[in-house]
Design brief:
The chain has eight helices and no strands. The chain is mainly α. The chain folds into two domains: 1-111, Orthogonal Bundle (Rna Polymerase Sigma Factor, Chain: A); 113-191, Winged helix-like DNA-binding domain superfamily/Winged helix DNA-binding domain (Arc Repressor Mutant, subunit A, Orthogonal Bundle). α3 packs across α4.
Amino acid sequence: MKELQEDKLVSELKMGSESAFRDLVERYEKKVFSVGLSFVRNVEEAEDVCQEVFIEVFRAMRQFREESSLSTWIYRIAVNKSLEFIRRKKVKKRFAMIASLFGSDNSVMDIPDFKHPGLALEDQEKGKILFEAIAKLPEKQRAAFVLHHVEGLSYQEIADVQKTTLSSVESLIFRAKQNLRKLLYDFYKNN
C-alpha cells in the first residue's frame, strides 16, 4: 500500500479507516517500541506499552487537534504510556513487598536482562548499565534524554512532545547529563 501523506492519513484516521490505522502502525511501530524499550527495559513490557500507545492513539484520534505533528503527538503518548507503565509496576512491586511481609506467596519479580536492539552485542553490558542509570533520573530528565540521545529527536521536537520551552529542554538534558555522570562515575569507581 502506498504511504499516505500525513494530513490525508490524519483525516482518514479521524473517519475510522482501518487501512489508515494499519498504515499508521506500520509507520510508527518501531519508533514507539524503541521509546517503550528505552524506558521499561524489557521486550515484552515494551510490546505491552506499544500496544497501549496504539490503543490510545486509536481512541483519541478524533480529539487530535493537529497543533503539533502526528509524530510529535504519538511520541508524547509513547512517553506518557511508558512512564505510566513504570509507575504501575512500582506500585505492584511495593504491594508485593508488603504482601510478602505478611506471608503471602507473592514475590517481587526480578527484571530480566536488558537488551536494546539498537546496541551491538558487545555493547549490551554497557547499555544495561547506562539504561539502569537513565532509569534513576527524574521523569522529565529521563524523557528528554531518551528522546534526544536514543530516539534522535531535536531539542525543538522534544519541547513539542513535552509541551515545554526549548530552554527548558536544554536545561533538562544538561541536568540529565550531569546526573548520569555522577551515577556512572560512582558505578565505575566502585567496580
